[in-house]
Design a protein that fits this description.
The radius of gyration is 18 Å and the shape is globular. It has one domain: Double Stranded RNA Binding Domain (2-Layer Sandwich), CATH 3.30.160. Helices cover 31% and strands 27% of the residues. Strand 7 and strand 8 form a beta hairpin. With 204 residues, the protein is an alpha+beta fold.
């Protein structure tokens, strides 16, 4: 399991928009690469997106996948919030969180809604066409995970609960992780560095 911290640092709201867009691309690319990516995000008080998020990446190709993301991400786009603003470059940072992940706390089953769906995505030859995949939704936080790597619905339900419990735990610690001095200073250095990825568009 690899944990990635995505942060807009002290950047303006446009950087938070860029972070939200980046999360969507990361999750989509993870599915194509046959790895699992679950995401928990920080507060979004004004609707422009969170200042930080954590992505949990798992699977056989996880190391190679995250290697293409760690560093600074540059979005080149006009500001949708300030149309006449001259700045077009918006940076976010992607860091790997070292150390052991926090121990998840058991969830109340009454707070979790399960849905079944056909297996698809990561898993390859071990998947089948039955509705063995499970989507788990944590009602109090809105966090969602999909487990499809198990061979049975029962196993995928257990996997989904484990991953969801970890996301809930990480969500509670996200602010503390983001406020660490090394992350903030690291973000400033990354802005002056060479981005590992660049996205362009008139409206993000």
């Amino acid at each position: 399991m690899i944990r990635l911290l995505l942060t807009s640092g002290r950047g303006p709201a446009e950087c938070r928009i860029a972070l939200t867009k980046t999360l969507g691309i990361l999750v989509n690319e993870a599915e194509v690469a046959c790895v699992i990516a679950d995401v928990t995000v920080g507060p979004d008080p004004d609707g422009y997106g969170p200042a930080s998020a954590i992505a949990i990446v798992e699977g056989e190709g996880a190391e190679a996948f995250v290697a293409t993301w760690i560093g600074s991400i540059l979005w080149v786009a006009r500001s949708p919030l300030r149309p006449h603003h001259k700045r077009k470059n918006w940076f976010i940072g992607v860091f790997r969180l070292e150390g052991s992940p926090p121990k998840p706390v058991p969830l109340k089953l009454a707070d979790v809604r399960f849905e079944t769906l056909r297996a698809g995505g990561p898993g390859g030859q071990h998947q089948n066409k039955t509705e063995s995949a499970v989507r788990a939704v944590h009602a109090p936080t809105g966090l969602v995970v999909v487990a499809r790597e198990g061979r049975s619905q029962h196993r995928n339900k257990a996997i989904a609960l484990e991953r969801l419990a970890l996301l809930v735990k990480l969500a509670g610690e996200l602010a503390e992780i983001t406020d660490r001095e090394k992350v903030q200073s690291g973000h400033a250095l990354l802005e002056r560095g060479r981005p590992v990825r660049t996205f362009k568009g008139e409206r993000f």
